[in-house]
């Protein structure tokens, strides 16, 4: 899953999201100033900065149990709340 923010707000977004921790999700910031792919300027991969979220499945078969999915949902809600509260677009 990717969360895209306006490049002007990447510092604020990082500050808002950095304190969040959850063993289910690993995330990073993708620097889109020099994308290695060729795309039109209307492509979100070029016009925004992305925060990819990587969900770590709980089960050996690569699936998530209901508790894992609940934690991911709660984390996404928290991310949305923090970005909205900080007026990050």
Low-confidence stretches: 38-42
CATH class: Alpha Beta
What is the third-level CATH name, the topology?
Phosphothreonine lyase fold
Give the helix tally: 3
What do the pLDDT scores average to?
77
In CATH, the architecture is: 2-Layer Sandwich
Structural class call reads alpha+beta
- Beta-strand percentage? 15-25%
Main β-sheet: number of strands, strand sense, barrel status? 3 strands, antiparallel
Rg (CA only): 14 Å
Proportion of helical residues: 25-40%
* E-strand count: 3
Brief rundown of the structure:
With 89 residues, the protein is of the alpha+beta class. It is 36% helix and 16% strand.
Tell me what the structure shows.
This protein is of the alpha+beta class. The protein has a single domain, classed as phosphothreonine lyase (Phosphothreonine lyase fold, 2-Layer Sandwich). Helices cover 36% and strands 16% of the residues. It has three helices and three strands; from the N terminus they run βαβαβα. It has helices at residues 10-17, 44-47, 66-85, and strands spanning 2-5, 25-27, 49-55. Strands 1-3-2 form a three-stranded antiparallel sheet. The chain starts with a strand and ends with a helix. The model is unreliable at 38-42 (pLDDT under 50). Its main location: secreted. It holds the Pfam family VRP3.
């Amino acid at each position: 899953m990717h969360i895209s923010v306006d490049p002007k707000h990447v510092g604020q977004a990082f500050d808002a999201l950095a304190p969040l921790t959850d063993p289910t999700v690993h995330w990073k910031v993708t620097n889109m100033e020099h994308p290695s792919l060729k795309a039109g300027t209307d492509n979100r991969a070029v016009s925004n900065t992305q925060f990819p979220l990587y969900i770590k499945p709980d089960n050996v078969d690569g699936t998530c149990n209901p508790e894992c999915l609940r934690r991911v949902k709660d984390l996404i809600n928290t991310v949305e709340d923090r970005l909205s509260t900080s007026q990050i677009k």
